[in-house]
Structure formats: structure tokens, C-alpha cells
From TrEMBL:
<keyword id="KW-0732">Signal</keyword>
<comment type="similarity">
    <text>Belongs to the bacterial solute-binding protein 5 family.</text>
</comment>
<dbReference type="Pfam" id="PF00496">
    <property type="entry name" value="SBP_bac_5"/>
</dbReference>
<keyword id="KW-0813">Transport</keyword>
<dbReference type="GO" id="GO:1904680">
    <property type="term" value="F:peptide transmembrane transporter activity"/>
</dbReference>
<feature type="domain" description="Solute-binding protein family 5">
    <location>
        <begin position="89"/>
        <end position="437"/>
    </location>
</feature>
<dbReference type="InterPro" id="IPR000914">
    <property type="entry name" value="SBP_5_dom"/>
</dbReference>
<dbReference type="InterPro" id="IPR039424">
    <property type="entry name" value="SBP_5"/>
</dbReference>
<dbReference type="GO" id="GO:0015833">
    <property type="term" value="P:peptide transport"/>
</dbReference>
<protein>
    <submittedName>
        <fullName>Peptide/nickel transport system substrate-binding protein</fullName>
    </submittedName>
</protein>
<feature type="signal peptide">
    <location>
        <begin position="1"/>
        <end position="24"/>
    </location>
</feature>
């Protein structure tokens, strides 16, 4: 099948760092920490940890920090179910769908009574226009429609998508936070310009979501306004203001002062015990598709052989490492794929903790053998885990060191893995969606984008390509077992979104989405004082 080009940035792979705040008339919820009051004017202020980095255009945006905009302004045909710990496909602008046995024809029944923010009624013509526009723009997430042969519109409420080749992961492409979103056909024509409306959608929107984009000031602020004609659940917050902060300590101060209503995966885990001890806030640990990973570099002498790689992985005290460093912000991973991707966890990871194997291997190495364990600059959890493992290696007589690498450098390693370290602790990464193909292809296939050191098994690549055509779970499990046998890879932890919220902010867990690492703001509520 045609290989998909995955983005070379950690997506979902770094969870979105959004802080949720609410302002009263004076722009604050309270004047003192621990005494935050709910807003009286319906204004919800979100503090972004850094700018979103790209225009909030659903066919361009392919990062993390702006997913909150995309998710709350635009909608796709399907989505991942909110408030659950599995990547279950749920209705969005399609109320139902059928798939032919060959996984090549997907027929969608469309929701009635939906309008775009420009007043255009949503119908099947919008599906074709939106798919065509994504192809024409050809941004990072364009691969999700690259396999589409055509979109038929037999009537206003029916859209039939035909693929060039079988793809059982196609619904997951559509459910992804980076999947194709529906855009007003009339608005795309009216504002086409010379760039398929890219300039227009950098500061406006053409979506159907509960909010409209009403202001976009790069590096400063993004405002959303509740769309009065929204077909679904109405929000108690009529305005959402996303204020850009470039210093996490400033966001933390706002939370402590009661000016911020909540923090979504934005605080370092070193603050975990402190916030868990505060009676003024609630802590939520919500499931994501992200994970902490450990990858080994077979192009380096230290890990050139499979027994050496296997010995190193057996040295990792996974349960203690994850518990000591990440605490309640994660759970120990037991599977090769992401959390919940294989029903029943049949894709078990077969690594037995036994440090004596590595100790024996260390004795066969030349004196003063050096080894470098890398981590991404700024990832506190990865740095701590790397330091712990390095200390353990040093007790075995290995001159091990931990080294930070900028993200741009990390993603350059597939061009020449010999320039990378011997191994890499990836503190937070994940796929674009919840299908096992979207995990295996990204992390294990040398063409996937996040197989940093190109540890590749052609047999595994073939099994993944076969499995995505049919959706056969047994083949996915077999592929996971085979890649695990290379000794190049270990899923360390299933990461969670740690949400710290003032007590009045309600329905947080049900508003959370496992696929997007984000909250649906129209589902948040204001709880009565207890």
C-alpha cells in the first residue's frame, strides 16, 4: 500500500500544554490563591504555554499547542469518544457509517440541521470540498486523504468515500485531531484568494464547532466566541480567550493566585505532590494515546548486536523508574502498542527485569567503554529517567552519560543515525490516532518518521502493511512480537493528562478526549459550591 508520511514532530506525541483560566469582569477569578470564584461574565481564559506555532488552519496545523482551537472550532465526520480510556470511534458530523468488507468504500450518513459559522448549511458537498481542499493545500496532515480516490454525493445527507487501496485505519485518520475537518464550501470559494483560503483561515474560521475564531494575534492571544447556531451542547462560557505565555512559572503563579482555573498537562511532575496536597484544587489524571518510550541505536557499537540490546532492556526496572519519576501522571506500560489499541492487551511486551544480564555483558566490554543516553531538551521526566539509568550503568563500570538534545536535532537522526546517541529516552510521544497501524508504522517502520535510529525489520513492515488492509488484530500482535524481538524498543509508560483545576470547574473528565489530549470547552461546567 502507499506509505503514509507521518509528521516529524511529537504530536499527540507531546501532550498539548494548555492552561484553563476563567476571568470575571476584572479579568480575574479571585484576588487570592485558594479562593478562586467562578466567573460571572461567561469569559473563559486559556493560558497557552507558548504560541501555537502555526496558523489555526485545520489543513495546515500539525503540532500540539493549538489543538484546543481546532477541536473547539472545527468538527470532522467522526471523533474519538470523549471521557473514555480507549480510542473508540464516535459520531460527529456523521451520525452513522458503513464500511465494505474490502475496507475501500466508506459510506457516511450526515447529521441534519448543522450550519457552518458563515451560515452555509452542512451537507455532502462540504465533505468533498473539505477533502479536496486538504489535498490542494498539501500540508503535514494531507497524508490522511492521500489514499482517497473520490468522494461521491448521491444526496445531501450521504457521502461515499472510495479509497485507492484497502485501509482499515481510515476511520482513525478521520477521528484524529489532525484528521480532515469540515469547512464551508461557500466560504472556501469566497475567500479562496491565490492560496486556497490559507490567508483567510490564519485569522478566521469556516467550521461548524461550538466556537468561532474571533481574534488571532500571533504570540499574544486567540479568542473564541460561542456560535449561537451550534447544533450540539451549548457552553456556559460565551467567550474563550487563549492568552499566550512563554514562561511556565508565570502560568503556575496564575494558578496559585486563583487567576487560572486549571492546568492541562502543563506543569512539571516535580510539582505533583504539592498540588495533590492542596485542598483548594482537584487533580485529574486522564488517559491519552501518548507514552514514554526507550529506543536503542543499532548503528552504534554499544548496541550493534541484539543480545546487547536485550541485556540493556532487561536492566531497566520499569515499575520503579516510572513510579519514582512520573508518579500518578503515568502508568507502567505492558504492551507494544499504545494504551487500548489492541483489545484485551494481547500485544504484551515481553521484557523480563533481570539486571544481572547487563552486568554480565558489561564485563565483556573493553575498560572505560563510553555510552550516551539522550533525552529531549526541556523534558524533565526524560532527563530524570536518563540520569537514573546512567547511574546504574556507571555501577557496572561503564562510562555512561546523559545528554540533552534539541528537538530539531532529534528529528534529524533518521537522516544519519550514527550522529545520535546510543539510546534515547522519549518522555512523551504518540501517534496521530488510535489505530495500531498508526503506532507501529510511526515508531517501527524506517519510513514512519519517529523511528529515530532506523532500527527496521522488513518482515514487521510487511506485516503492518498487511494488517492495515484487513484490520486483522492477530497480524498486528505478531508484528509487535517480532519488533520487540529486535531489542530496539520499549514502551516505558502510558502518559496521562494531569489536569489541575479549581474546585468550581466541573465535568473535566467527561470533557476530555483521549485522541486530542484536550478538553471540549462547551462541555465544561460551573459546579455549585460544596
Amino acid at each position: 500500500m502507499t506509505s503514509t508520511n507521518t509528521r516529524v514532530a511529537s504530536a499527540a506525541f507531546c501532550a498539548a500544554t494548555v492552561l484553563v483560566a476563567v476571568t470575571a469582569c476584572g479579568g480575574k477569578t479571585s484576588s487570592s490563591g485558594g479562593d478562586a470564584k467562578p466567573p460571572t461574565d461567561g469569559v473563559l481564559v486559556l493560558g497557552l504555554n507558548g504560541d501555537i506555532g502555526q496558523p489555526p488552519d485545520p489543513d495546515i496545523y500539525y503540532a500540539n499547542n493549538g489543538v484546543a482551537i481546532i477541536q473547539n472550532v472545527y468538527e470532522g465526520l467522526v471523533k474519538y469518544q470523549d471521557g473514555v480510556d480507549r480510542p473508540d470511534i464516535a459520531p460527529a458530523l456523521a451520525t452513522s457509517w458503513t464500511v465494505n468488507p474490502q475496507n475501500t468504500v466508506f459510506t457516511f450518513t450526515l447529521r441534519d440541521g448543522v450550519t457552518f459559522h458563515d451560515g452555509t448549511p452542512f451537507d455532502s458537498s462540504a465533505v468533498k470540498a473539505s477533502f479536496d481542499r486538504r489535498t490542494a493545500v498539501n500540508g503535514g496532515p494531507a497524508y490522511m486523504v492521500a489514499g482517497v480516490q473520490g468522494v461521491a454525493t448521491p444526496d445531501a445527507r450521504t457521502a461515499v468515500v472510495t479509497l485507492k487501496e484497502p485501509n482499515s485505519a481510515f476511520l482513525d485518520y478521520l477521528a484524529s485531531p489532525f484528521g480532515p475537518k469540515m469547512e464551508s464550501p461557500a466560504g472556501l470559494v469566497k475567500n479562496a484568494g491565490a492560496d486556497h483560503a490559507q490567508d483567510f483561515l490564519s485569522k478566521h474560521d469556516l467550521g461548524t464547532g461550538p466556537y468561532e475564531l474571533s481574534k488571532a494575534e500571533t504570540g499574544r492571544e486567540y479568542d473564541l466566541t460561542a456560535y449561537p447556531g451550534y447544533w450540539g451542547q451549548k457552553s456556559p462560557f460565551t467567550t474563550v480567550r487563549l492568552t499566550v505565555y512563554n514562561d511556565v512559572s508565570a502560568l503556575q503563579l496564575a494558578l496559585d493566585n486563583g487567576d487560572v482555573a486549571g492546568a492541562v498537562n502543563a506543569l512539571p511532575s516535580s510539582n505533583l505532590k504539592r498540588y495533590q496536597s492542596l485542598s483548594s484544587v482537584t487533580n485529574h489524571f486522564l488517559p491519552t494515546l501518548g507514552a514514554a518510550l526507550l529506543t536503542l541505536n543499532p548503528s552504534k557499537d554499544f548496541f550493534r548486536t541484539q543480545p546487547a540490546r536485550a541485556a540493556f532492556l532487561q536492566m531497566i526496572d520499569q515499575k520503579k523508574l516510572v513510579s519514582d519519576v512520573m508518579g500518578d501522571t503515568s502508568e507502567v506500560a505492558t504492551t507494544m502498542y499504545g494504551k487500548g489499541m489492541i483489545p484485551g492487551g494481547a500485544d504484551q511486551q515481553h521484557i523480563t527485569y533481570d539486571p544481572t544480564v547487563m552486568a554480565a555483558y558489561a564485563k565483556t566490554l573493553p575498560p572505560n567503554t563510553e555510552m550516551t543516553l539522550g533525552y529531549a531538551t526541556g523534558n524533565e521526566n526524560a532527563q530524570k529517567m536518563a540520569n537514573i539509568v546512567v547511574a546504574q550503568l556507571q555501577t557496572m563500570g561503564i562510562r555512561a552519560s546523559a545528554q540533552a538534545y534539541p528537538t530539531a536535532t532529534v528529528f534529524s537522526w533518521p537522516n544519519d543515525p550514527t550522529k545520535g546517541p546510543d539510546a534515547f529516552v522519549d518522555g512523551s510521544n504518540g501517534p496521530d490516532g488510535g489505530n495500531p497501524y498508526m503506532w507501529g508504522h510511526v515508531f517501527w517502520d524506517k519510513s514512519g518518521g519517529i523511528n529515530y535510529f532506523l532500527c527496521d525489520s522488513p518482515a514487521v513492515d510487511g506485516m503492518l502493511d498487511d494488517a492495515v488492509k484487513t484490520g486483522d488484530i492477530a497480524t498486528y500482535v505478531k508484528a509487535g512480537d517480532a519488533y520487540g524481538a529486535t531489542g530496539c524498543y520499549m514502551t516505558l509508560a502510558y502518559n496521562k493528562d494531569w489536569v489541575v483545576a479549581q474546585k468550581w470547574l466541573g465535568n473535566v473528565e467527561n470533557a476530555h478526549n483521549i485522541g486530542s489530549f484536550e478538553l471540549n470547552f462547551n462541555q465544561l461546567t460551573i459546579d455549585a459550591p460544596k
